[in-house]
Amino acid sequence: MRTEALSPEELARYDRQIRIEGFGREGQEKLKKARVAIIGLGGLGCPSSTYLAAAGVGYLKLVDKGIVDLSDLNRQFLYSHEDLGLPKAEVAARRLRALNPHVEVEPVGAELDGRGLLDLLGDVDLVVDGLDNWRTRFLINEACVRLGIPFIHAGVRSFYGQLTTIMPGEGPCLRCIIKASPPEEGIIPVLGPVPAVLGALQALEAIKIITGVGRPLVGRLLIFDGLEMRLEEIYVGRDKKCPVCGHLRSR
To answer: Is 188 exposed, middle or buried (0-12, 13-18, 19+ CB in 10 A)?
Structure first.
């Protein structure tokens, strides 16, 4: 955990959010001490990591083994045409350091599997889901439940998206909510502003959890319909027989 006091430059940089009632300097100091992993640096990971860096989260671990492709550029705004073929994690880390030099950014171009996830996530306080496949999402969900750390899930397709926050022991995990693994889709159609909306909401949830301000989206699934410009909320409960989190005692 980072323990440094806020510098005069940081106080100036974060002035607008420090002025928020109930947030203040204490909230900003909590952000500086926080360690967050963003898993996947695509349409969701670009906005979530950008807003977390801009807000002053002290340490960001960026995990993605992919390289920048031309088809990414309609929504993944941390990359440019000149970055084609380069590692996403390295490019994103460079851009975020340029945005906020007060944030420590670690790029990780790792293959994600069940064996190494506990080590990968063992030094962070919270995980943000920027993934595009369900197999890895469920592995991350299991790892976060085992480690007892929050997992902010989002998924998008076309004009639509969904968002929920997993707080192990406090509400349902992702497997409670989605019991059967959805079919994987090779290429997911999506319009850029949709993951931008959901990624920004993920960053907001992370900031709320870190600072203790507001009510996280635990036990609720937020559905975004971009065609109708409508938000709906579905209440979801824990499954006591869930193979992932059923053994946990409620907090």
So the answer is: middle
| DSSP-assigned letter for residue 9 | H
* DSSP per-residue codes, 207-226: HHHHHT-S---BTEEEEEET
Tell me the residue length of the chain. 251
Render the burial of 6-44: b for 16+ CB within 10 Å, e for the rest. beeebeebbeebbeeeebeeebbbbbbbbbbbbbbbbbb
Question: CA 66 → CA 14, 44, 86, 107, 244, distances in Å?
Answer: 32, 14, 8, 12, 28
What is the pLDDT confidence band of residue 113, given thresholds at 50, 70 and 90? confident
Closest by Cα among 52, 27, 96 to 204 = 52
**Beta-carbon-side half-sphere exposure of residue 184 (alpha carbons within 13 Å):** 9
200/221 Cα distance (integer angstroms): 16
Q: How far apart are CA 78 and CA 10, in angstroms?
A: 23
Tens-place pLDDT, residues 176-205: 999 988 889 889 999 999 999 999 999 999
Query: What residues contact residue 126 under an 8 Å CB cut-off, 6+ apart?
Result: 34, 35, 36, 37, 149, 150, 151, 152, 206, 209, 210
| 12-34 per-position pLDDT tens digit | 999 999 999 999 999 999 999 99
Taken in order of first residue, the domains within the chain and their CATH numbers are 8-235 (3.40.50.720)
* Lookup result for tokens 């300097």: 25
